[in-house]
Amino acid sequence: MNRRKVLKGIGLGIAGLPLISAKAAKPSLSDYHSSFDQDQTTDEKFWKKFRKDFYDVPQDFINLENGYFGVQPRPVYEAYIKNVERVNVNSSRYLRTKYSSDFKQIINKLSTFAGIASEEALITRNATEALNIAIQGLDWEEGDEVILSGQDYFSMIETFEMLEKQKGISIKRIKIPLLPESDEEILACYEAAVTPKTKGILVTHMIHLTGQIMPVKKIADRFKPQGIEIIVDAAHSFAQVDFKLKDLGADFVGVNLHKWFGNPLGAGLLYVNSNRVKDLKPLYGDRIEDVDDITKLGHFGTLSVPTVITIPDALAFNQTVTIPKKEKRLRHLQNYWTSRANDIPKVTITTPLDPTRSCAIASFKIEGMETKEVIAKLYEKAKVFTVIRYLEDQQVVRVTPSLYNLTSELDTLLDGIKSIT
Ligand SMILES: Cc1ncc(COP(=O)(O)O)c(C=O)c1O
Fold this sequence. Notes:
- It is a single chain.
- By secondary structure, the protein is of the alpha/beta class.
- It has three domains: 38 residues, no CATH class; 121 residues, Aspartate Aminotransferase, domain 1, CATH 3.90.1150; 237 residues, Type I PLP-dependent aspartate aminotransferase-like (Major domain) (Aspartate Aminotransferase, domain 2).
- It has 13 helices and 13 strands.
- Helix 5 runs parallel beside helix 6 and helix 11 packs parallel to helix 13.
- The N and C termini lie far apart (56 Å).
């Protein structure tokens, strides 16, 4: 039976699971198109098949550390391998003839997905690079103040520390509440730090340490009208939770594509509001004279071309699952373990559990135990892989399930926690 005939025969079975003929061994994304029309959030049978169809998972441990970078779904990984081969075989001929038109299309598709204009998008190698281009591109002067939180990502903090030494800017560090009662409580922290000299605020949309989602739009709406630059680090929120980059209300947003978007390692995206491109000086030397041309900021040399040309495949995967459905499932997985872990004596969840304030990532600590020891014991006893994260005044275990994780694996995590408390 040829593939077309097999696909024709595919229908939806119970629970919306695609029925795939035993002979059509390889499921494709299109088999799943209508599956996501239904609400599959809590249907473990569905996700078990989804995992089998699309992911290669380790057999000897349970990976609950999906915050560093995302495991590529199989269709993306396979496209990437083909692209590595294609670029290697066709070599500079591909780069010198076809690549630039492919690249334009990739920018167009990615910008539409991200909710920005293609003239506002710059593909970078990662979020650190994207954010450095924005941060170092702004015109800082001696005495300018920037507000950072102790929970912002260390690389961005270090960039500002460098500017502090080089340009004499002054950093004001604020403490964001771990479990805020309201957005106002967070806004008040920034309000208290703002002075007439404040020139910029760095906000991390989803804090990598605990998974807390920050009210970025409210922060931008409150402080941008005062002439303060809002720079957003959306490394973890992009393609994990449902929003468009422009919804954040900031003029500069950096993201990576190798975390929740699921692209191969080595791709990021910088959004700069089209009215503000002129206000960024290129970090890398460039001759482009049009100050409004965002490509003036991207003179960082040859990118990993196979990585870049796999972006449409990662995009297709995200468009099949859809971000709202992904967000719902990821939040369900997080709620599944945090709500149960909350009832285990000595366990404290250090992530706000209000659904507007967290999604896949959450963290915890155990009273009377070193966090390092908790991580080691979880692996030793339950073969569950997690990571330690350092907050200003405490250490926590960060737990990050991905779309391929099942609640049965979270049960193993919970058993592991119980056995060591
Ligand atoms: C909040 C945050 N910002 C930025 C980054 C840096 O991302 P990349 O390594 O892609 O530059 C990370 C990476 O974990 C992060 O968690």
